[in-house]
Fold this sequence. Notes:
Strand content: 5-15%
Number of domains: 1
Low-confidence stretches: none
Radius of gyration: 18 Å
Amino acid sequence: MAKRRFHDSLWKPAGQAINEHQMIQEGDQIAVGVSGGKDSMTLLYVLNEMRKFSPVKFHLHAISIDLGFGVSLEPIRDFCRDIGISWSQVHTKIAPIVFDFRKEPNPCSLCSKMRNGALHITAKQMGCSKVALAHSLDDAIETFFLSLFYERRIKLMQPISYLSRRQVTLIRPLLYVREKTIIHFTDAFRLPLVKNPCPQDSHTQREEMKQLVVGLEEKFPGVRDRILTAFKNSNPDYLWKRP
């Protein structure tokens, strides 16, 4: 009954994104980056449910990057055990390097690069050719405005992209899903979450863009969905590559 409640807002758009962009093929070994936040826990749950009923057979492996904040990731471990998915924790010193050694005034970029590098390397070591990331529609819109306002360029978060250096393909199955849907879903299904320990959380340029989009939605109801349609209809193709 609870799943049916999220049919149009979660299951349908996630399935649509996967099918439209041919994200998953027969026999795929997919690493799911799981931080313990609402987005990644929802992604893991959704892909695991889809795996049970999909005619396309694929395998999931959850990977959590321990940034070195000293936060327990046991809730992720227990959740993966309960739903029958293998889980790997990668211990790193990313937080001490970024905050203590480098003392980065704008730490998000370096942290993201190091975290993603650790995730991609681990995925390859585990035999995974694809990495699933939990970016939502709100993330895609915020990224668009970030690149426009701060980088003076137009850049869209791609549903699927190939990293030739790492030889892994990134997929974003939740890219058509609203953040508010993910929030409601984690509450309804009582998914265990790990609080983000980063001192920069909620104090970033991305948070500014999030508040901007909230304001736009209040003034122009439905603007997120119209922006998604604009992304899909973007031309030339390098803005949003079609399969």
